[in-house]
Amino acid sequence: MFYEDLSEYDYQDEDAFTDRESGFYALWYRPAYTRLNIGWLEAGRPYSTGTIPTVFVEKLKAVQEVQWMNVCLGVHECDLCPEDEAPEGNGEVRIPGGPGIAYAAPFLITHYVTAHGYRPPQAFIDAVLAIDLDTWAATRWPDVPFPWVPDDVERLLE
Ligand SMILES: [Zn+2]
Q: What is the pLDDT of residue 75?
């Protein structure tokens, strides 16, 4: 699956978050914010490369440990690795950007950065660095670690 960085995300109509502690509670809604694609790489498609601050990679990994989203949509394999070594990722990441903008990245984005030299747009790097990780990590159901879930969201025990 390839999408140009910063193009509008339209892969899924709804954003779904799963409670990482129970693994069962989930909520989903049709976002009012605009989602912009980041890091949907594919073999044969050029992507930007460059050095990345280590603190960014560490923080993005930490975010992925607390935020589970769109995990029910199946596994996505790295297309840039040899087939027998390709890691798989399940789900996506949502990072709040400027007003009304959220970045939508595949779970494998940290692998793309560390193994394939991918450099996401600076706006995305800045947005990750701006996350209040302590607050996100302390979030407990019925809240999830993402600030823009609407109040009238549908919450279900699957
Ligand atoms: Zn790879």
A: 83
**Helix, strand or coil for residue 95?**
strand
CA–centroid distance, 77 to ligand 1, in Å, is 8
Query: In which band, very low, low, confident or very high, does the pLDDT at 155 lie, cut at 50, 70 and 90?
Result: confident
Q: Can you read off the two tokens belonging to residue 33? A: 């914010």
Angle made by CA atoms 137, 49, 74, in degrees to the nearest 5: 50
Place of tokens 């159901």: 141
CA distance readout (Å), 43 to 2, 14, 79, 101, 103: 9, 27, 6, 27, 22
Q: What are the boundaries of each domain within the chain?
A: 15-157
Q: Is the dihedral of CA 43, 35, 119, 91 positive or negative?
A: negative
Q: How far is the CA of 76 from the centre of ligand 1 (A)?
A: 11
